[in-house]
């Protein structure tokens, strides 16, 4: 049995760890509220961009396919997979579940005879893919706790350039969608080609009546407007994924740190009980020594 001093030192160590985990939980909770606000502020703009893009595409009609970014490739031989992870850990299964989903999808594509190109945001995703021997064509780090629109633009430009140049035929994005501080779900979305994405679909809450296009006059033409709107929509889609991932990361870290604090409390209780037993054993040993000494004097 460990000595009373050893157990006391272990209790002090666990208490110090609990202070750290509680502080990290409070910081994550404070940042989470701001992340939720950023998501709420983005939704109206993203909805408006989607609506305008859909209307311009319908007005352009058959001219849509002439735009390089809207031209669907004849075959999908090379697939680009973007994994949205975090720069840091200590967030439970936040990073690992994205990596598992992405590598599983890559294995399925490769089993079908297709090539896979990896892109990753967040140091955890980049380092994990590199450790697995995967080449990362695009690595974006240093901003996962507070992504800016310029970060989404940088990623979007690389992916759109790869698609237009024919280097990739499809782009899939894996990220943690924010549901609540306790729930984060892995989402898989097709970013390109846009015919398979949500850009031309009517979303819940949007006006489905798009039959009065004659009342809208485009200057310049709908094709030119659409050509300008498409990059904005791709950037907004990636920016939303980055914001959702940030909120999910903070929610996962807050939950993980709360669980760690609770587990530390249980360990402290067990160690306190062990220390009391050690103290009782030491007292009993001292009493036995006193009694034995007294008997020896008789």
Shape: elongated
The name CATH uses for the topology of the largest domain is Pyruvate Kinase, Chain: A, domain 1
CATH architecture of the largest domain, by name, is 3-Layer(aba) Sandwich
Give me the number of helical elements.
5
Mean pLDDT, to the nearest integer, reads 85
Beta content comes to 5-15%
Strand order of the largest sheet: 3-2-1-4-5
CATH class of the largest domain: Alpha Beta
Q: Spell out the helices and strands N to C.
A: HEHEHEHEEH
Q: Decide which structural class fits the backbone.
A: alpha/beta
Record field, number of beta strands? 5
Please give the radius of gyration in angstroms. 28 Å
- Uncertain runs: 202-214
- Distance between the amino and carboxyl termini: 33 Å
Give the biggest beta sheet. Answer: 5 strands, mixed
Helix content: 55-70%
CATH superfamily of the largest domain: ATP synthase, F1 complex, gamma subunit
In total, the number of domains comes to: 2
